[in-house]
Amino acid sequence: MSNPYARLPGWAEYGLIPLVNLVVAFLVAGLVVLLVGESPLEAAYHLINGAFGRGEYIGFTLYYATTFIFTGLAVAVASHAGLFNIGGEGQAYVGGIGVALVCLWLDRIMPWYVVFPLAILGSAAFGALWAFLPGWLQAKRGSHIVITTIMFNFIASSLMVYLLTRVLKPLGSMAPQTRTFEAGGQLPKLDWLLGLFGLDIGNAPFNISFLLALLAAFGCWLLIWRTRLGYEMRVMGHSPSAARYAGIKDARITVIAMMISGGLCGMMALNPIMGEQFRMQLDFVQGAGFVGIAVALMGRSHPAGIIPAAILFGMLYQGGAEIAFEMPTISRDMIVIIQGLVILFAGALENMFRPAIGRIFASVASSRSASSAAKGA
Amino acid sequence: MSDIAIELRGIDKSFGPVHANRNINLVVKKGTIHGIIGENGAGKSTLMSILYGFYQADRGDILVDGRVLTIKDPNAAIASGIGMVHQHFMLVENFTVLENVMLGAEDSPVLNASISKARIELKRLEKEYALEVNPDAIIEELPVGLQQRVEILKALYRKADILILDEPTGVLTPPEADHLFRILEQLKNEGKTIILITHKLREIMAVTDEVSVMRRGEMVATRATDKTSVEELAELMVGRRVLLRVEKGEARPGDVKLSVRNLTVRDGRGVTMVDDVSFDIRAGEIVGIAGVAGNGQSELLEAIAGIRRATGGTVELNGSTVDVTGLADPAELRTRGLAHVPEDRHHVGLVLKFEESENAILGYHRDPAYKKGALLDIAAMRADAEEKIARYDIRPPNPRLKTANFSGGNQQKIVLAREMERNPDVLIIGQPTRGVDVGAIEFIHKRIIEMRDQGKAVLLVSVELDEIRALSDRILVMFAGRVVGERTSDAGEGDLGLLMAGVENRVENRMEAAR
Q1: Residues of B whose CB is below 8 A from A234
Q2: Is the terminal CB of chain A with fewer CB neighbours within 10 Å at N or C?
Q3: Which domains are assigned to chain B?
């Protein structure tokens, strides 16, 4: 009774409201394009066409989406335990060390299907390690995770600069990156998957880490809604006092949830390192850790929502690059504006249209019950 | 001028799909005390919020002194002479009485003139209505009863002729409540009109002239108080006959199951909340802890349940020690036979956003019965929940429904079912019927007695003295963190009331009266 608009059908809650928010975000973005003096319709065409117009474009969109699924899941897992992990950027960056070490060690002597599982473990272990420290600091020392994870992003950045310029860089090279991996460190593309739909993948780096991302999404769903650990995480996330009452140890859950979150972030590194560049470069994460926050927000921290949200952001990345290419007056910053608007409307203002939609549903429901009552009489 | 202070005609209010007030008609005569009773969620608060301008009615008219008014906000209500004393006081705790009274009613930005004017006016009001308070006392240093008096003064200072009191006795000791009723009588004699909202039938019978009963958003009846009875009002409220007295046989106490010795709890600021408390509870008896809210009962319960660290003392459960001063593990205590129904079901006993079946295992989720391989056995959880739903008549009977969508009574039944069905040796219960409707209260009381008759040791904490008296075999009274007395279940209310008020407190009151 205290929340009169509480009940909406599931499809409206998880389908209609995000869609309305998205449409509004794009309308406002269109206004900005107009302000620049360009045609919003043309921009929209390039955005959609650039993301889905050809097999190659779709490949790029899904390549970006793969990255965002990992970071989105990472933020979601932490948020179910009531933790806001802003450190995805650093955890993914450090996760790259695990991938690179495995590849540098085995790429010449082992096939990819041996290297890949080890690289998965390596990336997850390094990412988890980078999240363990903030988690432990919060659990044992009360240092707030939001602050520490941000600081750990900077530490990760400095650490990687050091490693890539001093330690992992091959002798005689001037580029801050590892050597290029041989065949064992290169993931096969999913050209056959797009081929099923009659699409040609072209040069797109869409690779099998996408399947790993889908698997991770399913695993997260299982973890959160079907395991005891997930249950304890959710109790803590919803109500720390109920968790204490139930005998759930919050220090333990904090550390474990952060490590799972960091592990997922670390696995993101597989996609660019083994799937596209075949080497570890400076700044290969490129803000994906932060995009993960938006993806998790938009996907309501549910894997089934995170996958489409990740594809949406993949589309913005890929289609946005296409707009910048086709319409020179619109710079890449424009894409950042659109992304910002999507985050604003789908994340921060996600409940803006809720009361109105709730009222519409309520009036429809009451008129329907009135008409059925009339029929009954 | 008519002799009707307030008339409501056809008031209707919906929140989305919820029809909170349905075509309400109400006539409140001038110079009377008019009671409004109803269960939680019957629409009393919504109706009063409409009258006080917090909400607008969808349909219907409000007549004050015979004139139709639109009350668009509380300022408009105050301007038409309506004042409200809220259940949770709206006072600035670190301001003085005087500052609180004039807050929002200052004449100019410079306060000096207002202050001296307010002081004179306050003196006059105090004299006229016998509402003595020291105008320079800081609010947070005053006892609750006096804080409430300040709320009343605030309304009178704003020239209220009609006073609405929302559940005013919830926080008061019985003597304080009696004092409040005398003040209300006095106000009535001075020509004020009073609307008293409560769910306590005895209060209605004690002070009102007329009483209106609400049920499920409708006004079902208005009676002259001297022509009705507690039984009739209860039946009107619930819509069926209810048993107001609890049937219970003699207790047959067995071995000591819970033994508390010199338990001391300090809160984060180092304030002693529980001070050297010792008692035993035997199998097959209910020990009630009476006391005004905030005298350490909550902390005592939490310390025994292992969710708050005690600073000293020992607790023995079933003859073995509980590490109350270290890290007692609530999960481990459960396996040792302790069940805990916490006072605050919304934040502690339940996770409101969870499905019913998920809450039905909270705290027992490590039980292997709910595990299948590495995963939770959802089917077993739901079957388990359905069984409890049937046994405790939880409605709606849907284990997949979000817990927030159950009524207060049904939420409480979810917690009780979970804790009682585990067959514990010791059951500790805080506020078993807070925010629970009359029908469910009857059910819950019966279950608690049943637990006792099955030989469980029950520790009961409640701010409802009636409940303590009805259920307990022995009554301990807590005041300022200490157990100040023990009585048998047939102790008189006056006797308990004095204990609850505390000896020192009485001395203080006398000193204040002498001043």
Answers
A1: 351, 354
A2: C
A3: 4-238 (3.40.50.300), 256-512 (3.40.50.300)
